[in-house]
């Protein structure tokens, strides 16, 4: 019975302590552990067992949360968080922390919203330094009074890491060394001071045990740690979001840090434009972040030779110079958000395995990248303004052959140009091999040209095009000379009823039948015949043209002999030309003998067309039908010529 009452009393005490702690806004991160510890001491089998006692420290006041009215201290407590520390309650805080001597379980302390004077702050630090606390976090600190030199005792501490965030110093006039010396000489492994507008930090007075320093978001400049020989164990240095400007000076800063492996200089104002300035980095430096600065191509002249991971994203780099940097150990390179127009080669980075070149200005990346960079396992090249053209086809084929080395494929790879293809993923962009293979395209075009030339040549030969060109030229020249000879009256006066075109082999029929029946018969027609009407001294072609021009009609005596005559072809061509140029119906075809189609040469295509479309007179073999033939022929060429009265019927020149 006594044991059960003891159990209930201890459990009730625990509950009260937790409630009071919460009410006073003093939080213990191990409250759950306390409850678990108490629960684990409950008798599972009903036997009488006791839970461990919970020591209690309390004060007499019950006013506000900042006065630490009730504070629970548990020997098994490992973490403690307190807030709203002021000059009014700092003595109580020091008293509280003094109970955590070395050997206590308390290892983690967090103070938030601390507003005290310099001496009180130093007293808090000094108490923590002599306690069991290993990790001290202090947030939102406001320093209210004058900063003076303080003799800080760093000996015999359990401290390993200090994190200070947002320090506001209201005192404008103080010796900076008095402030920075306290932090510079701390004998701990890790120190973080962030978002505190800190403009400087002293080099430690002696060999420092610092392994990790984080000065994120301050106002530090190029003067930091220059010629500092006491940071020999420092491995990680974070100087992100400060005001560094000179990359060579940063390199000199690290040259004496013999153990430095990681350096973060991102989001500063770093430049390096002078090629004559040599850089000197720590040989141990293997990881360097220079992202979000103002670095250009010359940065590759100022890089640590043993670096393995290099961040250069969000700078102003437009080209990776060849033969400048020899980074044989470089495995990971980030060049995202720069101005590069192509993938860099690996001539200076033989060990490169990861490359990020997203969000640059790459239109058509080189297809031979993986050949020049055989060790690359992952390439991030998405979100570039790709120009979908033939050149890009090779890069798309490269993706298929790379075995998944393109990170973000296919979503991050889309066409930007031309505008009609904007947004199209590269995997959906295709062009024919003929359109993209210049050699094949040239060969195809050459073959088509040869075929076309051969076809035109064949048609020219088959249709006798050169002959027609020559005849057209002669027609044009003859007409031009005629116009020059008769300037007042360019028109042509008709002198003949008809011009007769026939083969010399058919001349007997023309002289014995055609001419007598037309000139001496009814109508008294005047015919133009080459034997009597061609003018000596003029070319045959010119005589043919003149006779056709001066004749009302042109009579063509067709026979197998006609199609074999070159001059008959000339006469037919010029007469046909007159037919179309003057829009007249001046052709009369007389079929003296039937002409088999196979006998008509290919160049007589006009004759074929005329015989197919126009009515022709066929010479009848029966004498009884010849009178009608002559009557039809006279009717076709009957016209009153202006010179008819001057040439009596039957007279010829």
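Sequence proposed for the structure above (653 residues):
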């Amino acid at each position: 019975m006594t044991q059960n009452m003891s159990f209930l009393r201890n459990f009730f005490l625990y509950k009260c302590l937790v409630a009071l702690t919460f009410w006073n806004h003093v939080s213990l991160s191990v409250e759950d552990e306390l409850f678990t510890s108490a629960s684990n001491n409950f008798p599972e089998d009903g036997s009488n067992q006791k839970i461990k006692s919970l020591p209690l420290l309390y004060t007499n006041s019950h006013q506000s949360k900042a006065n630490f009215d009730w504070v629970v201290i548990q020997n098994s407590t490992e973490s403690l968080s307190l807030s709203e520390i002021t000059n009014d309650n700092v003595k109580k805080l020091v008293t509280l922390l003094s109970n955590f001597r070395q050997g206590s379980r308390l290892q983690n302390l967090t103070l938030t919203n601390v507003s005290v004077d310099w001496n009180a702050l130093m007293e808090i630090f000094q108490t923590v330094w002599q306690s069991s606390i290993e990790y001290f976090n202090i947030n939102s600190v406001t320093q209210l009074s004058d900063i003076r030199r303080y003799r800080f005792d760093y000996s015999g501490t359990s401290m390993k890491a200090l994190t200070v965030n947002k320090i506001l110093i209201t005192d404008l006039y103080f010796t900076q060394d008095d402030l920075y010396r306290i932090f510079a000489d701390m004998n701990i492994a890790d120190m973080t001071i962030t978002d505190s507008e800190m403009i400087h930090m002293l080099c430690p007075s002696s060999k420092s045990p610092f392994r990790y320093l984080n000065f994120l978001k301050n106002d530090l400049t190029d003067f930091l740690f220059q010629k500092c020989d006491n940071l020999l164990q420092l491995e990680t240095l974070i100087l992100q979001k400060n005001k560094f400007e000179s990359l060579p000076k940063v390199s000199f800063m690290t040259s004496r840090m013999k153990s430095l492996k990681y350096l973060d200089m991102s989001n500063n104002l770093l430049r390096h434009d002078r090629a004559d300035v040599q850089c000197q980095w720590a040989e141990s430096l293997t990881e360097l972040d220079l992202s979000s600065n103002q670095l250009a191509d010359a940065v590759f002249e100022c890089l640590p030779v043993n670096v393995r991971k290099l961040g250069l994203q969000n700078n102003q780099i437009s080209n990776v110079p060849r033969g400048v940097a020899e980074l044989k150990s470089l495995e990971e390179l980030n060049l995202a958000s720069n101005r590069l127009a192509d993938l860099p080669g690996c001539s200076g980075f033989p060990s490169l395995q990861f490359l990020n070149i997203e969000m640059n200005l790459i239109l058509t990346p080189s297809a031979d990248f993986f050949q020049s960079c055989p060790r690359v396992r992952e390439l991030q090249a998405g979100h570039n303004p790709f120009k979908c053209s033939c050149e890009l086809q090779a890069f798309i084929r490269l993706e298929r052959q790379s075995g998944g080395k393109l990170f973000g494929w296919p979503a991050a790879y889309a066409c930007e140009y031309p505008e009609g293809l904007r947004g199209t993923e590269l995997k959906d962009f295709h062009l024919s091999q003929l359109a993209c293979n210049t050699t094949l395209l040239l060969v195809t075009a050459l073959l088509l040209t040869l075929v076309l030339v051969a076809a035109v040549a064949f048609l020219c030969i088959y249709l006798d095009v050169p002959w027609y060109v020559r005849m057209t030229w002669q027609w044009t020249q003859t007409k031009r000379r005629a116009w020059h000879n008769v300037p007042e009256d360019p028109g042509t006066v008709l002198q003949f009823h008809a011009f007769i075109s026939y083969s010399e082999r058919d001349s007997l029929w023309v002289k014995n039948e055609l001419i007598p029946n037309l000139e001496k018969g009814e109508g008294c027609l005047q015919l133009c015949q080459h034997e009597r009407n061609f003018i000596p001294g003029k070319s045959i072609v010119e005589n043919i043209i003149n006779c056709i021009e001066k004749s009302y009609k042109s009579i063509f005596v067709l026979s197998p002999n006609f199609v074999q005559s070159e001059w008959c072809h000339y006469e037919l061509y010029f007469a046909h030309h007159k037919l179309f140029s003057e829009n007249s119906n001046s052709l009369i075809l007389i079929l003296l003998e039937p002409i088999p189609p196979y006998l008509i040469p290919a160049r007589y295509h006009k004759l074929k067309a005329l015989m197919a479309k126009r009515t022709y007179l066929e010479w009848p073999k029966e004498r009884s039908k010849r009178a009608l033939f002559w009557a039809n022929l006279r009717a076709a060429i009957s016209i009153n010529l202006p010179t008819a009265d001057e040439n009596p019927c039957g007279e010829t020149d």
